[in-house]
Design goal:
- By secondary structure, the chain is of the alpha+beta class.
- The protein is built from eight helices and 15 strands.
- The strands form three sheets. An eight-stranded mixed β-sheet has the order 4-3-5-6-7-8-9-10, with helices on both faces.
Length: 269
Amino acid sequence: MSITNGESDARLAVTAARAGAAVVRDLYGKRLERYEKSAGDFATEADLAAERAILHVLREARPEDAVTGEESGRTGAADARRSWLVDPLCGTLNYAVHTMLVGVNVALRVGAQVTAAATADPFSGEVFWTDGARAGVRGDGADEDLTPSAGSALVDVNLDPPFPNAPGFRAARLLADPGFAERFRPRVVSSTLALAWVAAGRRAAYVTDGDLRDSVHFAAGIALCRAAGCTVTGLYGEAVHTGAGGLIAAADAETHAALLALVTSRTHR
């Protein structure tokens, strides 16, 4: 069977994400050096080692592609049309305090589009992936299509800074809205693994503030949600990746419309 470029890139994204996840899993629970990055933000040796493992896989297979890693920055030609975005350990604080809610994100941007991506859960062994058209989850060697569903009514809200849309929008105010409590139940995972859960039907939606342009944190999850058929926009309904507009990723248009109305009603602009 012939393999298209998209399928081949998606397989590579899965392989790279799995390589990073294996490192994260192997180092879990060990005493790890911390490297301060900014106030309240740090990396551990697991972040650095996982990124090295991912970059090794990508450079072996695609030596001419550019790569942007959360910890190592950008390498490769400045004008490269193909660029990999790598978040080797999303949920470092969770991981550092022995909480298994983390993800390993790998995404390929070709031009302006993310055409392949994978998010690996180091502890469940699942890898959520997309080739830009199909979205699936790989468990024990078998793939299942991702099917979004709002049935759980569970909405993950990212409460971690930075908040570029504050004071106009603050996620904490959204949770305090009576309209939110009437329809949804909040969750705070503090990892973009929650975006994969939206695509898989395990969450109704995910809301975050932040600048999503070329984000190593969000590129894979957004691609998964789009390929699975979710409704994905910025906080105010605009196209994602157009600026510091945050994100609403919902299992369906109805859930998205309800959250968009709540965000708008709680925004002071």
